[in-house]
Design a protein that fits this description.
The structure holds two protein chains of two kinds. Chain A folds into two domains: 2-156, Thiamin diphosphate (ThDP)-binding fold, Pyr/PP domains (Rossmann fold), CATH 3.40.50; 177-305, 3-Layer(aba) Sandwich (Rossmann fold). In chain A, strand 11 (237-244), helix 9 and strand 12 form a beta-alpha-beta unit. Chain A contains eleven helices and twelve strands. Chain A is an alpha/beta fold. By secondary structure, chain B is an alpha/beta fold. Chain B has one domain: Rossmann fold, CATH 3.40.50. Helices cover 41% and strands 11% of the residues of chain B. Chain B contains nine helices and five strands. A five-stranded parallel beta sheet of chain B has the order 1-2-3-5-4, sandwiched between helices. In chain B, strand 4, helix 8 and strand 5 form a beta-alpha-beta unit. The chains are: A alpha/beta, B alpha/beta. The interface between A and B is medium-sized, with 25 and 28 residues.
């Protein structure tokens, strides 16, 4: 997703001479082409995310669109007050880009994981929160942001679901994409872990359980209509996120449904439960350890529906 | 600076202090000591340095000003009102239900670009504005007024490193160096000395002035940048609570609200000044 984002930026930079890409000294190797071609639109501000966010606000108040770029929780939690006071309160045209959503940086360790960002960023007024699930969504979200005004957060995952876009489908920010239709249960995922949801849906389909799979590429604002439809048309909702269950996608869905007065048959939030991702391992390994992978999703759904599904190898 | 201008900024400073005294008293607001500390700096900025126009507060060619020590908002609002950015009568709504004049600086007020209040934010924003100005080769300058206490914040020094590395000579930081922070003297909390040397070491061109000497302030601010290719830091040696004898150099008047006999005595002192 990172490469898709940078490629999109590089492609569109000539038409958007006023945007600036700020990095907190990350992006070794991957930004070279952009820097070489658009040196005036690039700025490495050093390992100083608070300053990066304040600078971005100042630049935006002067008419620039600014991307701040770093990994894990560095561009968000490290400088959350600058984002709140300087960017969001001034409705400054700043796009915060996190590469390494969730546990993308697996064995690098929990310090480099972004597992509370969705909850925290979506609580900020004026903030748009995008979390694409596949490469098409990542490219479309990046493209969209170049024409969007105001604060936004783009969470990019190292993993990506296999291509899910339909022919001629347009990207609609603020909506939830129905990637696969079904009526037994809804799997609502955000980020690259959408791939696990699709895999689980395949396994369950073999057992005659048909899942509706939703890609929640926009976590804020949340698309209540698609969620209430899923709650009333399918047996229950499983939210899936590589993120703490507290306040993240599952929280957003539950809030929307409760407030709409539309209650699903059941709801389960799959995500990290009051734990740091402290185990060492690849993103895939960690998904297994923390019960976020396709096997865990399958187990959850079959237990809820009271059916037995052969154990996955 | 002409004698007329000098007299004008002194009068402006006195009016800023008087407004702020009324505002904090009526509204029940803290920080009068911090306002008085920088009242002369604000008066020199708004009385003779900043190119700003109340009829066109968003003019692209204006000088930018960020009051990073946002708790001195009463002083800024008073200066802006005196310059015609808002009605003087509006000042007395400060700190009260439904007012736009919040306890810390609000960009809802014409002439204010940046809301502040949490310390250590302003210099980064100012640096961003200065960088943008340089990209456009714009001649305007960006002034940022900091408290000494907010130099405890690491983000202030992140911004200082950035501004020097990027040679932002259109950026001027003024530090209101009154040596008293929120609840104690700086020497007891986090010592900043040698303060000028720190800014020099961070790559800034530094000058030191008496922060209540209008001529000295004006001369220094008018000549910034102090060195080619460097951001400028003006260390303004000030007295917290300046202008009212019993408020001067006290920790107490960072938070105390001037009321009753104290208000009357303070007002009498300000009115007795030339």
């Amino acid at each position: 997703m990172r490469d898709v984002f940078i490629r999109t930026l590089t492609e569109l930079a000539p038409d958007h001479p006023d945007f600036l890409l700020l990095t907190g000294d990350l992006g070794f190797g991957v930004l070279n082409d952009f820097i070489a071609r658009f040196p005036r639109q690039f700025l490495n501000v050093g390992v100083a995310e608070q300053n990066m966010s304040g600078l971005a606000a100042g630049l935006a108040l002067e008419g620039h669109m600014v991307f701040t770029y770093s990994i894990g929780s560095f561009p968000t939690l490290r400088c959350i007050e600058q984002i709140r006071n300087d960017i969001c309160y001034h409705a400054a045209n700043v796009k915060i880009v996190c590469v390494g959503g969730g546990m993308s940086y697996g064995p690098v360790g929990f310090s480099h994981h972004a597992t509370e960002d969705l909850a925290i960023l979506r609580s900020l007024p004026n903030m748009l929160v995008l979390s694409p699930g596949d490469l098409w969504e990542a490219a479309e979200a990046s493209r969209f942001l170049l024409d969007h005004r105001g604060p936004a957060y783009l969470r990019l995952d190292k993993s990506a679901a296999p291509a899910t876009a339909q022919r001629n489908e347009g990207f609609r920010p603020g909506s939830i994409r129905t990637v696969r239709d079904g009526s037994d249960v809804t799997l609502a995922a955000t980020g690259g872990i959408l791939g696990e949801a699709l895999l689980a849906a395949d396994i369950l389909a073999d057992q005659g359980i048909f899942c509706r799979v939703l890609s929640v590429h926009t976590v804020k604002p949340i698309d209540t209509d698609t969620l209430t439809a899923a709650a009333s048309e399918t047996g229950g909702i499983v939210s899936i996120e590589e993120h703490a269950v507290d306040g993240g996608l599952g929280g957003a869905i539950a809030e929307a449904l409760m407030e709409a007065g539309v209650y699903p048959g059941f709801m389960v939030r799959i995500g990290l439960r009051n734990t740091f991702s402290s185990v060492v391992g690849s993103q895939q390994h960690l998904r297994k350890v923390y019960s976020l992978d396709a096997a865990a999703i399958t187990r959850t759904v079959s237990a809820k529906l009271g059916v037995s599904v052969p154990a996955l190898v | 600076m002409t004698a007329t201008t000098l007299n004008g900024t002194r009068q402006l400073a006195r009016r800023v202090r008087t407004h702020a005294l009324h505002m904090t008293s009526v509204g029940g607001a803290a920080h009068i000591g911090a306002v008085f500390s920088c009242a002369d700096i604000l008066a020199v900025l708004y009385g003779g340095i900043l190119h700003v126009d109340p009829t066109d507060p968003k003019s692209p060619t204006r000088d930018r000003f960020v009051l990073s020590k946002g708790h001195a908002s009463a002083g800024l609002y008073a200066a802006l009102a005196e310059r015609g950015f808002l009605p003087v009568e509006q000042l007395l709504t400060h700190y009260q239900d439904g007012s736009d004049l919040s306890g810390h600086v609000s960009h809802k007020i014409p002439g204010v670009d940046v809301s502040t209040g949490s310390l250590g934010h302003g210099l980064s924003i100012g640096a961003g504005m200065a960088y943008a100005g340089r990209l456009k080769s714009a001649p305007h300058r960006v002034f940022c007024l900091l408290s000494d206490g907010e130099c405890d914040e690491g983000s202030t020094w992140e911004a200082a490193l950035f501004a020097a590395h990027n040679r932002l000579s259109n950026l001027v930081a003024i530090v209101d160096y009154n040596r008293i922070q929120g609840i104690a003297p700086i020497s007891e909390v986090i010592e900043l000395a040698p303060f000028a040397e720190k800014w020099v070491a961070f790559g800034w061109a530094v000058r030191e002035v008496d922060g209540h000497d209008h001529q000295a302030l004006h001369t220094a601010l008018a000549t910034a940048p102090f060195a080619p290719g460097k951001p400028s830091c003006l260390l303004a040696h000030t007295v917290k609570g300046k202008g009212v004898s019993f408020m001067e150099n006290t920790v107490l008047w960072h938070y105390r609200i001037p009321r009753g006999a104290e208000f009357d005595a303070a007002l009498a002192e300000l009115e007795a000044q030339p």
